[in-house]
Amino acid sequence: MFDSPLSASAYEVLAVAPDADDEALKRAYRLRLRQAHPDTGGDAATFIQVQRAWELVGTPEARAAYDRGHGFADEAPSFAPTDAASWRPRSGPADTRPRARSHGHPGGWRRERYLDLMREWVGRGVELADPYDPALVRTAPVEIRRLLADALAEEATARIVADLGMGYTVWHDVASPREPDPDAKLDHVVLGPSGLYGVLSEDFGGPVRVRRGELVGDGVDGAPIATLVGRMRQLARAAGVRFSGAIVVLPDDDVLQAIDELGKVRGTPVVLVGRSALSTVLRRGLTGARAIGGNELFDVRTRLQQVVRYA
């Protein structure tokens, strides 16, 4: 994924300088392709990244557009998928279609924190014309870029869940009942006919793998799955409800398969999904998860409404 505030640039994936000439770029691509090829001991996810990087900068036209969009050129950004506009909060006319019941502000806490820290990092008295400018974001410390990446991931999940329709209810940025830190939260709690789910929306800036029931990768810090399940258990006890499963959502490019059911962690079924497969999982449920319907659905929603607080 190359449009993430955390992701390596296409040049970094190819291990070449942004101002390298076309011949040097081709040599770097061939070398990285050999190094990353699974048949020669390389990593499949990295191999896919190398190919994607070449698609973005392998021709003069593609490279010029990519450079503008990522702040490698002095011209105004014009490459739509990575334009800074895609990092700004969305606005526009209200959507009048039937939507899921939504509570809370997805990504809100992290966006506010991002803006505060970005202004602090730039320096007092310095005019910050565009806090989402790609050239500026790329030079910011990783802790600041991670806040923006997480906010974008949560907002993307919120849009997908909203499209599921009126049979679903979702709470965003749910504060932990026991941990005062606003970052110790559940990104989303989703209730629908297929069950009750705790959802973690993440963007680590690159591919991840699963090892012994936990996520591993260059950008992964701590134990995201264990942390998610632990916070779900806290909320379940506070509300007197039972979760059907835990869902970790990542950008499509950062997972090896769209839906990967990982088994149970502390008795809770866990699935790792690419973003485009999230609605499928929420509609059909997880293997072994019990469906919720009728009066029980209403009862679970009422219990959660009584205890949910927001970060």
TrEMBL record:
Q: Which Pfam families match?
A: DnaJ
Question: Residues in domain J?
Answer: 9-70
Q: Where is this region: Disordered?
A: 75-106
Q: PROSITE patterns annotated for this entry? A: DNAJ_2 (PS50076)
Q: Which SMART domains match?
A: DnaJ
PANTHER family hit by this protein: DNAJ DOMAIN (PROKARYOTIC HEAT SHOCK PROTEIN)-RELATED (PTHR44240), J DOMAIN-CONTAINING PROTEIN (PTHR44240:SF10)
Question: What is the designated name of this protein?
Answer: J domain-containing protein
To which species is this protein native?
Microbacterium fluvii
